[in-house]
Specification:
By secondary structure, this protein is an all-alpha fold. It has one helix and no strands.
């Protein structure tokens, strides 16, 4: 579950960091 959360955070970061 934690791994999925990290992937989710990275996904958001990629879009939010744009």
């Amino acid at each position: 579950m934690r791994k999925a959360q990290k992937e989710f955070t990275r996904y958001l970061t990629l879009h939010f960091n744009d």
